[in-house]
Amino acid sequence: MTSATDLSTDLTPFPDHTQLPESNGTFVKNWQEHPQSILLTDSITPVLKQLHLDGQYCIGQDLGIYWRLTDPPEKGAEAPDWFYVPNVPPLLDGQTRRSYVLWREFIAPLIALEFVSGDGSEERDKTPWKGKFWIYEQVIHPAFYGIYEVKKASLEMYELIGGQYQLLTANERGHYPITRLGVELGIWQGIYQNVELPWLRWWDLQGNLLLTGDERAEQERQRADRLTAQLRSLGIEPEV
Fold it and tell me: Residue ranges per domain, the chain?
């Protein structure tokens, strides 16, 4: 069997994101993965823009994180359903990222999230060199790892402490604080993209839900409607 060490001596310099496969050819496992990722990204983007005034951060949605060289190459990658990496450029040499290559960029994700489609055993697999949990804990090193099960309306969060993942306890709101981002992560029962489900969402540290762009626009429309009604009740016709 060809080892990662053997391959690393054969392929010099190491390949970058343009030379590695961007997909292993499998289909998305459930419908919810795509809208769930969009919901997370949309609602936290204003926070990240404030944290990174220089725009140096990357969000991956079902994007491969290459952690070792294998044959075929895609076997050396894990693709979290959603992850965030601080202090890296959103583009590489002006190109959209096809993958995130650890041996090129070195910075680990701050948080990686997996959306369970089966029984959750894949996301909790600690088999050395193969199991998803083991690879995140021992190699990729996201500071926080979350396992979200929509069927159970549950979120299991781990924090990397002393090189091992420690299971976190939710706060009084049932959320998990990510203090470096100034946010909490938890389950929200509601309607998004015309479907009511227990969605994974962000709150600020005071427990206020972080809204999507559409929700913010609707909130502003309702505020404007209330103001118009108040003015008309006083006999004042608002300016158009």
Answer: 4-209, 211-240
12-15 long-range CB contacts below 8 Å, 24 or more apart? 14/69, 14/101, 14/103, 14/104, 15/69, 15/73, 15/101
Contact 86, 50 (CB under 8 A): no
Of 53-57, 78-82, 213-217, the least confident = 213-217
As a whole number of angstroms, the longest Cα–Cα distance in the chain is 83
Q: Supply φ then ψ for residue 224, to 5 degrees.
A: -65, -40
Which residue, among 28, 33, 30, 35, has the nearest Cα to 191 in the 3D structure?
35
d(Cα 64, Cα 15) in Å, to the nearest integer?
Answer: 14
> What is the Cα Rg of the chain in Å?
21
Among 194, 118, 122, 103, which Cα is nearest to 151's?
A: 118
| pLDDT tens-digit readout, 1-44 | 444 444 444 445 777 777 666 555 554 566 788 999 999 999 99
Q: What integer pLDDT is reported at residue 232 of this predicted model?
A: 77
- CATH ID of 4-209, from 3.30.160, 1.10.4030, 3.90.1570, 3.90.1200: 3.90.1570
pTM reported for the whole predicted model: 0.85
CA 64 to chain centroid, in Å, comes to: 12
135 — phi, psi (to 5°)?
-65, -45
